[in-house]
Design a protein that fits this description.
With 517 residues, this protein is of the alpha+beta class. The chain contains seven helices and 33 strands. The strands form eight sheets. A seven-stranded mixed beta barrel has the order 25-32-29-30-27-26-33. Strands 20-19-22-17-14-24 form a six-stranded antiparallel β-sheet, with no helix packed on it. Strand 26 and strand 27 form a beta hairpin. It is globular, with a radius of gyration of 24 Å. The two termini are 26 Å apart.
Length: 517
């Protein structure tokens, strides 16, 4: 049965019968794109559809997507003839347990794994992490009952009917079969992700030598230098779009409106890279003459004087940014921009994927790019930001997995105040409150997650995903923050209390609906 589940005004989830049906529709949409669809994230049995700006993710768009659905039973065609050979050392911690689950010896497991042809169905979780399937049904294995806090990069693992290779060290609950030295995601390659949807993989016993690449010492930088900072300073722009096929999410500034105001104040295009400063204190020194603007939570002082709008610095001047009384993040733009090289089309630093410019700490500097700048625009003061202890109401769309919770649990989610914890980050806001529990222990097959998704893990304490969240997730999303509230969410300091206000009760999107207003 096919269902269309709501995510927000510009996104919905198409849930299909199984992986074959999902990939068949994904292939059909790739061959005959639907106007208004910006991006599609395939997963185990869902497609997350995101619409173009100004296009509603409504029943009309759902009808157009489902019109591409192949006849039931259609098997997806091989989408790519490329086959990658991956050497593996089969010494995983769970090899013996996998053998017991499969009713085989360890040697027979290794033989079966290396004899199978694995095809990438979709990517997610982390850049370069590919969910691969094969025809051998014996590899349909459960996740570990207790996830590990750290799995080494290169680990070859199994869960569900999938095989995956961890591109970087991270937590995980898959069964570890072995390891490879072949990098899964390498920015020096033309296409950084080795494994992409449709690519086939064969595993061979052995190791591969990874040759070290000599890295030249960077040239000294003269520009804006960090004198001191309480937290690493990040470079952020409007985000990294269109890289879902490699498992890369958009990232970008958590408060996009503040980024745009800072750039307009110095005459830059709105999405140019600026510095995202978390709390404070921060001291920066100009080594050349420059013009800056600070927006967001904090204020800037030069020589003890508070600056507003754009302000000029001479070589040797210092700007001090104190911890803000309210809010969380500030944005510092330079007229003409900073000299930062884009990665996959963006200068954003993705803290989860570890893509983009390195975080700046004391002693680091960025040079001016010297791009032509236009007229300065006074965009006025930003919105009032919350302090710790304040109660903030955030609008949400119920779904896509509200129906995984009973009515009493959904009511408890909406009725209580959730507290922002200090464990929050750019990946997500960790919330504390009366835990949301489920009677059943079903596992949700991995599926696309939107920025603003409110995921409920086994602990029952929700996580509100922000810009650096994983592209796919395996816990049910009870509701999704309205995009209009994402900037405010990025400014919530620990101690703020959140109430969620639904735009409407949870309801499936009915593609047969005639009223789509």
């Amino acid at each position: 049965m096919t269902r269309v589940l709501p995510i927000g005004p510009r996104a919905f989830l198409v849930e299909l019968a199984d992986l074959d049906a999902t990939l068949a529709l994904f292939d059909a949409l790739a061959a005959d794109p639907v106007p208004g669809v910006a991006e599609i994230v395939p997963a185990a049995r869902t497609l997350m559809i995101t619409s173009d700006p100004g296009v509603a993710a409504d029943a009309a768009l759902a009808r157009a997507v489902l019109a591409r659905q192949p006849a039931p039973g259609t098997v997806p065609a091989a989408r790519d003839a490329e086959t990658v050979e991956i050497p593996v050392i089969y010494d995983g911690e769970d090899l013996a347990e996998v053998a017991a689950l499969m009713g085989l010896t360890e040697a027979e497991v290794i033989a079966a794994h290396s004899e199978a042809t694995w095809q990438v169905a979709f990517c997610g979780f982390a850049p370069g992490f590919a969910y691969m399937t094969c025809a051998d049904a014996r590899f349909d294995l459960p996740r570990r009952s207790a996830p590990r806090t750290r799995i080494p990069a290169g680990s070859v693992a199994l869960a569900g009917r999938f095989c995956g290779i961890y591109p970087q060290a991270s937590p995980g609950g898959w069964q570890l079969l072995g390891r490879t030295e072949v990098p899964m995601f390498d920015l020096t390659r033309d296409i950084p992700a080795l494994l992409r949807p449709g690519v086939r993989a064969r595993f061979v016993t052995g190791s591969a030598r990874v040759h070290a690449v000599a890295v030249a010492e960077p040239a000294p930088v003269t520009g804006l230098r960090v004198v001191r900072t309480a937290f690493p300073i990040l470079v952020q722009d409007a985000g990294r779009m269109g890289q879902a096929g490699q498992g890369v999410s958009a990232s970008g500034a958590l408060d996009l409106s503040a980024l745009r105001r800072a750039n307009r104040a110095v005459g830059n295009p709105a999405g140019v890279a600026a510095l995202e400063i978390t709390l404070g204190p921060v001291a920066l020194r100009a080594e050349v003459a420059m013009t800056l603007a600070l927006t967001g939570a904090a204020t800037a002082r030069v020589g003890g004087l508070v600056q507003s709008g754009a302000f000029a610095l001479d070589a040797g001047d210092e700007v001090v940014i104190e911890p803000p009384a309210s809010g969380m993040r500030s944005y510092l733009a330079m007229r003409g921009g900073f000299d930062v090289a884009p990665v996959l089309g963006s200068c954003a630093t993705d803290t989860l994927a570890q893509i983009g410019p390195a975080p700046l700490t004391a002693g680091d500097a960025l040079a001016p790019a010297g791009r032509p700048a236009g007229a300065v625009t006074d965009s006025g003061p930003g919105p009032e930001l919350p302090q710790a202890g304040a109660v903030v109401t955030l609008p949400v769309t119920m779904g896509p997995r509200t129906d995984w919770f009973d009515a009493a649990t959904v009511a408890r989610f909406l009725a209580q105040d959730w507290t922002v914890t200090p464990q929050s980050s750019r990946v997500g806001i960790r919330l504390s409150g009366d835990a949301l529990t489920r009677d059943d222990a079903r596992e949700l097959p991995s599926e696309g997650t939107a920025t603003g998704a409110i995921q409920v893990p086994h602990s029952g304490q929700p996580v509100l995903f922000l810009a650096d969240h994983p592209l796919t997730g395996g816990y049910p999303v009870i509701a999704t923050l309205d995009p209009s509230a994402l900037d405010l969410a990025g400014q919530l300091p620990p101690g703020v209390r959140i109430r969620f206000a639904p735009a409407a009760p949870f309801a499936l999107i009915d593609p047969e609906a005639t009223d789509v207003s």
